[in-house]
Design goal:
The protein is α/β, with parallel strands linked by helices and 423 residues long. It has two domains: 4-236 and 277-421, Purple Acid Phosphatase, chain A, domain 2; 239-272, no CATH class. The protein has helices at residues 46-56, 85-105, 125-139, 171-175, 203-215, 242-246, 264-272, 281-294; strands at residues 10-11, 29-36, 63-67, 108-111, 144-146, 156-159, 164-168, 187-191, 195-198, 221-225, 302-306, 312-315, 322-327, 342-346, 350-357, 362-368, 379-384, 398-401, 405-409, 417-421. The strands form three sheets. Strands 1-14-12-13-11-10-7-6-8-9 form a ten-stranded mixed beta sheet, covered by helices on one side. A seven-stranded mixed beta sheet has the order 5-4-3-2-15-16-17. The chain has a three-stranded antiparallel beta sheet with strand order 18-19-20, with no helix packed on it. The chain is globular.
Length: 423
């Protein structure tokens, strides 16, 4: 009973659980983005991956799957020279299952590194991210990649459709002390298909690059994908169910009901203050900068998608044009609270789908894995319900070049055409 209040489903009063109009015909779909985070637990991921594959197969040519970090538990992909063969084999098996789900559907996918992929934020994290990249390059198809690459922060741009630009960033890089990450070496930023190099000597170089990308996005919609959310009411956002206030050891060992009340939350959020939580110093600085940059985007809403907390959340602060999607229950479940900004929350294994339509509407659907490949979402919601978009030919022109490529003229007045591949 003490735990149940953090696992029940919540939908903001006045909202219908299902928006039937949010599912349009394929001829109206511009791009579909599937969000699944923290799918790296070997025992519990199968039903969700089957659901993912089923959804992506509906329109694979216009579907981009984003694995939002923590792709391998508990500590990422061991490098071949580490001498931990059993751990390496287990990691390969977990990753192979995720790749197979995408390849079976025929869609494209991007894997984003998370803190567990960075060796749980410990020494040797960069080597494990590079090992993850090498394995995907060797064993996955050309439409499945790790981004950003080379243990760099990005940002990397993926033109997922005519009206939507996906920007992928590695937030764990931002939270990692400089001595344990790639700093002075050349990193890639910009277009996935035509990147440029820069030297991220500090966080400021990364944020300048992200500002430039947002500024040149013009009237297209923006979806920023990372591992760490800028807002959450899960444990990384300070929510602790009553069970852990009273019996903190059950968080690690479910049967260890030794009472030690009122110790764990003040210790974690008041004294230790890990940078993996929103209260951490580096995390607060990162969130402040990301929110500032997102607010400068022209077309609203801006979607900030992440995992990290093992639940499903839709959050939109009052008066804000930024919608935060936490889709971190790819294979694990953790309790989650709510506040006035919460639109939807549930502690259940599942994933999210964001559909961008050619008439300017944006729909969100939340699915939960129940083992029956059900296509019925538990929650659907218009992120933008009005037809028509600021990104009309009067401000941005688009041309179709065959079935596999599109080009979009910048709305900033430049004549440069950006060549992009359909996802």
């Amino acid at each position: 009973m003490a735990y149940a209040c953090g696992t029940s489903i919540y939908i903001r009063p006045g909202l219908s659980p299902r928006c039937r109009e949010c599912i349009a015909g394929d001829q109206e779909l511009d791009a579909r983005v599937v969000l699944i985070g923290d799918a790296g637990e070997p025992l519990d991921q199968t039903p969700n991956l089957e659901l993912l594959s089923h959804i992506a197969a509906a329109d694979p040519g216009r579907t981009l799957v984003l694995f939002l970090g923590d792709n391998i538990y508990p500590a990422g992909m061991p490098a071949l020279d580490e001498g931990v063969d059993l751990e390496r084999r287990d990691a390969e098996e977990v990753l192979a299952a995720q790749v197979e789900a995408v390849e079976t559907a025929g869609a494209a996918a991007v894997f984003v590194p998370g803190n567990h992929d960075w060796n749980r934020s410990r020494e040797g994290g960069m080597a494990r991210v590079l090992a993850l990249q090498d394995w995907l390059d060797a064993h996955a198809g050309e439409r499945i990649r790790l981004q950003p690459r080379d243990a760099c922060p990005g940002p990397i741009v993926i033109e997922a459709g005519r009206w939507v630009r996906v920007v992928v960033i590695d937030t764990e890089w931002l939270l990692t002390p400089s001595q344990r990450r790639r700093g002075m070496q050349a990193c890639a930023r910009g277009s996935e298909t035509d990147p440029e190099t820069y030297s991220p000597t500090d966080e400021a170089a990364f944020y300048r690059s992200l500002e430039q990308i947002v500024d040149t996005t013009g009237e297209r919609y923006l979806l920023v994908a990372s591992h760490h959310p800028i807002r959450t009411r899960g444990e990384h956002g300070g929510y602790v169910p009553l069970k852990y206030w009273l019996f903190p050891f059950t968080r690690r060992i479910p049967w260890l009901y030794i009472p030690l009340p009122l110790i764990y939350p003040p210790l974690r959020y008041g004294i230790v203050r890990s940078d993996q939580d929103l209260v951490g110093g580096r995390n607060r600085e990162m969130v402040r900068e990301l929110e500032r940059i997102a607010a400068t985007a022209r077309s609203k809403p801006v979607v900030m998608a992440a995992g990290h907390d093992h639940n499903l959340q839709v959050i939109q602060p009052s008066g804000s044009d930024v919608v935060v999607l936490v889709s971190g229950s790819g294979s694990k479940v953790g309790a989650v609270g709510k506040n006035n900004d919460t639109i939807f929350r549930h502690a259940q294994v599942g994933l999210m789908v964001v559909d961008y339509f050619t008439d300017g509407r944006i729909a969100l659907r939340v699915y939960e894995a129940r083992g029956d490949r059900s296509q019925e979402p538990v929650f659907s919601f218009w992120l933008r319900s009005s037809k028509g978009t600021a990104a009309e030919p009067t401000s941005a022109t688009a041309c179709q070049a065959g079935d596999r490529a599109r080009c979009v003229r910048s709305t900033r007045g430049s004549d440069r055409q950006v060549q992009v591949r359909a996802p």
